[in-house]
Backbone:
């Protein structure tokens, strides 16, 4: 069972969330046993799919570990590149979709989806954001390997009723110069804030917020691991135009 850490002060976190322009980094958010259980699953996972929207191509391919499940697809994956001249949102990373429809009890990653939709976390999220519209969460596990990136976007997707984006980090001993940083852009296009992946930390931010995940450095041999998604409402949250789904 996945649990929140004991001693989290929702009132203080709510004040920090408001002071931080509705974005917040919460270290040590899960109890240590929960965080270790999820990290162990993601570190050993082989059922990834690489999802790519880059250079005008869109594809999701099953992997066997780090290689294409179908060897005929490996040259395409090796050659996939983001078009640096394009302003269109592009991405390359590995994903494992988490769903309540599963065979058997699932593993610790599956349990995160159940936890995020349970009363403990929904109540915590409402308390921190001050937003009682939060009804549910969706989730996917993500793995960013060297060269993986998600360029600037705002998370808006009409009909999805997204209120807040979140990232639950399970990356150990990461440094900012390894890339994979969650960065937020100001109106002038400059980076005004950002967070480096940190083990057992929750990043939370309001939708829409223009942000990106910087490219993971080619010189690292390690992966950026997380569970990401959106806190959503059952009812419409007002007009939202543009955006992407990833």
Residues:
């Amino acid at each position: 069972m996945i649990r929140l850490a004991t001693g989290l002060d929702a009132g203080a976190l709510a004040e920090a969330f408001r002071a931080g322009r509705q974005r917040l980094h919460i270290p040590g958010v899960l109890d240590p046993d929960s965080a270790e259980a999820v990290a162990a699953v993601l570190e050993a996972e082989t059922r990834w799919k690489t999802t790519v929207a880059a250079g005008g191509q869109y594809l999701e391919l099953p992997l066997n570990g780090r290689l294409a499940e179908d060897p005929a697809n490996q040259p395409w994956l090796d050659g996939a590149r983001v078009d640096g001249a394009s302003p269109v949102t592009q991405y390359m990373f590995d994903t494992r979709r988490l769903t309540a429809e599963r065979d058997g009890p699932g593993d610790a990653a599956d349990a995160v989806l159940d936890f995020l939709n349970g009363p403990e976390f929904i109540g915590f999220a409402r308390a921190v954001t001050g937003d009682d519209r939060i009804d549910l969460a969706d989730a996917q596990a993500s793995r960013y390997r060297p060269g993986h990136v998600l360029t600037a976007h705002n998370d808006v997707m009409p009909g999805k009723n997204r209120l807040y984006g979140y990232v639950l980090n399970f990356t150990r001993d990461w440094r900012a110069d390894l890339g994979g940083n969650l960065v937020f852009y100001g109106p002038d296009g400059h980076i005004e804030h950002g967070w480096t992946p940190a083990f057992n930390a929750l990043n939370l931010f309001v939708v829409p917020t223009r942000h990106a995940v910087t490219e993971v450095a080619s010189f690292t041999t390690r992966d950026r691991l997380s569970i990401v998604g959106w806190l959503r409402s059952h009812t419409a949250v007002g007009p939202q135009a543009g955006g992407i789904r990833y």
Residues 32-44 form the longest helix (13 residues). The chain is about 20% helix and 30% strand. Helices lie at 10-19, 32-44, 74-79, 108-116, 119-129.
